[in-house]
């Protein structure tokens, strides 16, 4: 049996380790800087066994996966390049940017031909090894960025392993092209969401109604602004060149609509929204992507004592787990007064059926967007 070392057993590393363990037919050794995380990964069966030192984890490994934040991946790669790894050992990472890590790997002769960049484009609103799932990447795109002087047989070997272990759709891509694409569909949206929240927070200092009325669409649009600041600092720094270009494009786009609004040009304004609507409708529905989906719905219930408890009890009777629950004071977008968030699509769909069969009005904004089923 071959051996795979997973360095970092959080959500992504743990999910990869589970897939490798269950379907990859490899022995999985884990390493993590947190002893508690490592113990949990062992006790919950995420890995076969754990090591407290990197050197022990990678000894005799046929595959090494660096499942760490971008900022921690680079120094660890240099550390690995100084070790006597097993001949033919394939190294890969799971970072959301590929340019800097591929550039560094190319400068390290001992691993340059065997390092294949990787990016499984899926995630979750949860974090940590407790949230790890062996099928987290199923049907998601998994991008590989091989080195220019790399071995095609090594790429094929890694692809076969990951295809079995993750059930993802493997894609080969140039590192710079990857960084530009992901910068536009993931990194730039995180910047815009954070900027919008900061802007509204600034207004709120002189008038508390800005955040008090911020519900519905504003919450949905800015949800990703709640992501880990340190992680996103490192992501932006590692994809700096692509993002500077993308942000320049965004500023020009905003200037066009700004000028149209300033001139009172209703035609240009309507064209702006028509173009966006047509493009938005082309997006694949509920596919795995770099921005984790949220499985939520709204329930129209009277804002009276005990009503929330009734809904929660009803779902509990059907063994439906609620990830989050909240009362919406500002009911824009036609959403109900009670917001329910679920951990997965299965609970989400089951909850809607149960609630509707008990006479409750349930609103799913995704259904409204595509003219789907009735709310009753």
From TrEMBL:
Domain annotation Prephenate/arogenate dehydrogenase: ranges: 2-291
Pfam families: PDH_C (PF20463), PDH_N (PF02153)
Enzyme class, first EC level, given as a word: oxidoreductase
InterPro entries referenced in this protein's UniProt entry, alphabetically: 6-PGluconate_DH-like_C_sf, ACT-like_dom_sf, ACT_dom, NAD(P)-bd_dom_sf, PDH_C, PDH_N, Preph/Arog_dehydrog, Prephen_DH
A single GO BP: tyrosine biosynthetic process
Pathway this chain belongs to: Amino-acid biosynthesis; L-tyrosine biosynthesis; (4-hydroxyphenyl)pyruvate from prephenate (NAD(+) route): step 1/1
Catalyzed reactions per annotation: prephenate + NAD(+) = 3-(4-hydroxyphenyl)pyruvate + CO2 + NADH
Domain ACT as annotated: residue spans: 296-370
EC number assigned by the record: 1.3.1.12
Molecular functions per Gene Ontology: NAD+ binding; prephenate dehydrogenase (NAD+) activity; prephenate dehydrogenase (NADP+) activity
Keywords in alphabetical order: Amino-acid biosynthesis, Aromatic amino acid biosynthesis, NAD, Oxidoreductase, Tyrosine biosynthesis
Record bears the keyword Cell division: no
Alphabetical list of NCBIfam families matching this protein: PRK06545.1-5
Stated family: Belongs to the prephenate/arogenate dehydrogenase family.
Protein name: Prephenate dehydrogenase
Organism of provenance: Kroppenstedtia pulmonis
Taxonomic classification: Bacteria, Bacillati, Bacillota, Bacilli, Bacillales
